[in-house]
């Protein structure tokens, strides 16, 4: 994987919604909004619902609504696994 990028997956219970490389991910968890950049320390959070914003490696902004589920960060890999998710 390229240096200074995150590998991101957004999946719903029934399908993959988006995957690719990103510079930044912002999501709302039960603890509040979290911003994730490359080299972020590992974290596991409960998705509080709402919009997930992904800035891709090309600088494009991807937005998805996610309800329920969790967010996991480990070694520049971000997984958002939601009960329901769709691109906005």
UniProtKB/TrEMBL annotation:
GO MF term list: proton-transporting ATP synthase activity, rotational mechanism
Pfam families assigned to the protein according to its UniProt record, in alphabetical order: ATP-synt_DE_N
Protein name according to UniProt: ATP synthase F1 complex delta/epsilon subunit N-terminal domain-containing protein
Bilayer topology annotation: Peripheral membrane protein
Description of how the protein assembles with itself and partners: F-type ATPases have 2 components, CF(1) - the catalytic core - and CF(0) - the membrane proton channel. CF(1) has five subunits: alpha(3), beta(3), gamma(1), delta(1), epsilon(1). CF(0) has three main subunits: a, b and c.
Keyword list, A-Z: ATP synthesis, CF(1), Ion transport, Membrane, Transport
Species whose genome carries this gene: Sediminivirga luteola
InterPro entries assigned: ATP_synth_F1_dsu/esu (IPR001469), ATP_synth_F1_dsu/esu_N (IPR020546), ATPsynth_dsu/esu_N (IPR036771)
Main location: membrane
Coiled-coil ranges per UniProt: none
Similarity-based family: Belongs to the ATPase epsilon chain family.
Protein transport recorded as keyword: no
Subcellular location per the Swiss-Prot or TrEMBL entry: Cell membrane
Domain ATP synthase F1 complex delta/epsilon subunit N-terminal: 6-85
């Amino acid at each position: 994987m390229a240096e200074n990028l995150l590998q991101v997956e957004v999946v719903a219970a029934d399908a993959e919604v988006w995957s690719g490389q990103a510079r930044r991910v912002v999501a709302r968890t039960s603890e509040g909004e979290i911003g994730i950049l490359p080299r972020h320390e590992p974290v596991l959070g409960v998705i509080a619902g709402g919009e997930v914003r992904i800035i891709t490696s090309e600088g494009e902004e991807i937005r998805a609504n996610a309800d329920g589920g969790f967010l996991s960060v480990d070694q520049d890999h971000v997984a958002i696994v939601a009960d329901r998710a769709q691109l906005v």
